[in-house]
Amino acid sequence: MRRFLLLFLLLLPVPQSARAHGKTENVIVVTLDGFRWQELFTGADETLLDKKSGGVRDLEGLKERFWRKSADERRQALLPFFWDTIAVKGQIFGDPSRKAVSKLNNGLKFSYPGYNEMFCGFADPKIDSNDKKPNPNLSVLEFLNDKPAYKNRVAAFCTWDVFPSIFRSKQNGLLVHAGWTMIKDKPLGPRQQFLNEMMDQLPRYWPGNVFDTITQEAAREHILRHKPRVLYLGLGETDEWGHGRRYDLYLDAANKNDRYLKDLWETLQKTPEYAGKTSLLITTDHGRGSTRVNWTDHGKDVPGAEYIWIAVLGPDTPGLGVRADVETTQAQVAATIAQLLGEDFRAASPKAAAPLPMVK
Predict the structure, then answer these.
(1) What is the pTM of this model?
(2) How far apart are CA 165 and CA 326, in angstroms?
(3) Hey, what domains does the chain have and what are their CATH numbers?
């Protein structure tokens, strides 16, 4: 009888929260708003390297920086950290040429619905605008922040001022710094004071979206000062310059984001609280059009804007590089973030999609 009971117990499914989850103790999530899979996988698009379609001001300078003969060389020139590090040690989803498309499910193909799907794990038809309305859905960030191990050690630093609503931070107390809001910390460090001064001096080119560098440095300071276990960094210039038909600045923004991620990753590997026990997940909220006319746009009437990409790097994720023969969705990101930490988001939000395959 005892042997039968023991065998029965061994065959029971083990809750995810009870499983050993490996080395990851911290997760950094980064989004490059509206950055196309085309540039990620093939680099600069020759059809947009002109003044009319791409709004390029210094064509020769742009070509010198990013134009190469082959797609592999172009993507390497544009995003060296992605292709030197993530493609070697991590995984990248979303390459159509490898039968590995990654898509969003919401059908609307713009930001709030995309970020809801990404962080809440499912497409919600009630999220149908970018209005600053509190999200009715539980996000994985809120889910983690409610757990004792992560309480007040989850934060979001975002260029776009709608994120406090997306994460309903007024209701749950999650730390969300967004847009042109001045940094508040006790006490403010010299770097934070400087960033506040810069926000006061810079032109508000986009009223609801601050420049990436401000948010990047604010996030870095928060990491160094407060050692969060989960941090989300939402960057927006790729989308803004895309809408403005400035392909040159769109590429420059992506390249600078990549450079920042390299520096941040190297900093984390030198910091005892993060070294060897931090995973990095990078993705986008939506794609864009694929033609010379509509590459600037996205939305339900723009074909192809549903295609995205997702990249993961960390101590527990096998280095499989660019994935092939696997289709994924934006909705899988939420449960993946939790799974990297050994947590089960789907237990709290059954509508959420399953985690990405082979990402631990």
Answers:
(1) 0.94
(2) 33
(3) 22-348 (3.40.720.10)
